[in-house]
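Thread: "does anyone have the structure for this chain?"

Original post by V.I.:
We have the sequence but no experimental structure in hand. Need at least a predicted one for the grant figures.
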Amino acid sequence: MEPWSRRKFFLTSLASSFAAGAGRLFGRALPEGAAVPAAAQGTRPIIISSANGLHALDKGMDILKKGGDTLDAVVAAVTVVEDDPNDDSVGFGGLPNEEGEVELDASVMHGPTHRAGSVASVRRIKNVARLAQTVMEKTNHVMMAGDGARRFAMAEGFEDMNLLTEHSRKIWLAWKASASMNWRPGIDSPEWKEHLAAIFDHDEEKIAYAERVIAHPPTGTIPCMAVNEKGDVSATTTTSGLAWKLPGRVGDSPIIGAGCCVDNEVGAAGSTGKGEENIKISGGHTIIEMMRRGKSPEDACLEALSRIARNYHNDKKKLATFHIFFYALNRDGVHGAASLWRNHYEEKGHSVYAVHDGTQARLAECKPFFDEINAHG
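Reply from O.Q.:
Generated one for you, tokens below.
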């Protein structure tokens, strides 16, 4: 046995001090007599996203395993979702604004070079995450918006196309009919239910989905963040925004420091849900700074949610009118996510997010800030 040394005494004392303060450091009290958990061990490379990116993370992980850039990995992953006409939260087939136009927002941040790019209120360009990356790489700007961003995309070879699919167009028509007497047949015609059934050819599943998104307009979005074996971090967030929004409305997704934030010395953070609430607290930046101070990604996400709740004096009745989610990972590959409410919109189970640790993509639970189910948000 090695002789006892001053160094061993110091390290033992340090470990004991950490054990005593671990509950405070990570924002939770440890039960009396409970063993202190070992420091969270991360995995590198790793890539995470909101749950709608589960099927797309293989694409990003393949790039990471081949030694590719972390930003290329996250953009490749979300491009799969942007291209999918069956996902109406981003890109092609996204639910439109109140005039029936699909408007997209996106941002990227590249940890190794400390650069960022962003686009907002872009029409007729499908892959806005890649467009945000192009803004970062090809211009001296960080953010471009509206028709200027669209014309820049055309100059860079992006395809101009109609982003409104027939599926999304029908849901928009159903929303218009529910919101205005002028967009549905008059009193001499069938009632609302029959009119809605006619729009969707009496498909009960499509009718039920349309009724849900009409009653509770989706916010869409997929954030994605990755860290490679060296510890380099990048992230992107892309969205079609709030369904039926006023034309020109911009949420948090293209806002650097809100919907997307990266610090290569710390990690990355992103968000989905009601972007207006995130913008007010600069949620992505808040999470990064909390992780810099030693909080785990999950606890940092909960801190951001606590600031949103505090803005409403923790009034659950007001907070129940919306939902918001935060996702984060640190440069060691430790990841976590948190949701304002336990469920994901109309679903009753726990909110989840997608993780790929190099083995396979899986879903992991978000930590709820409020454990109740929110039937409205």
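V.I.: this helps a lot. The longest strand covers residues 115-122.
O.Q.: and The chain has twelve helices and 13 strands.
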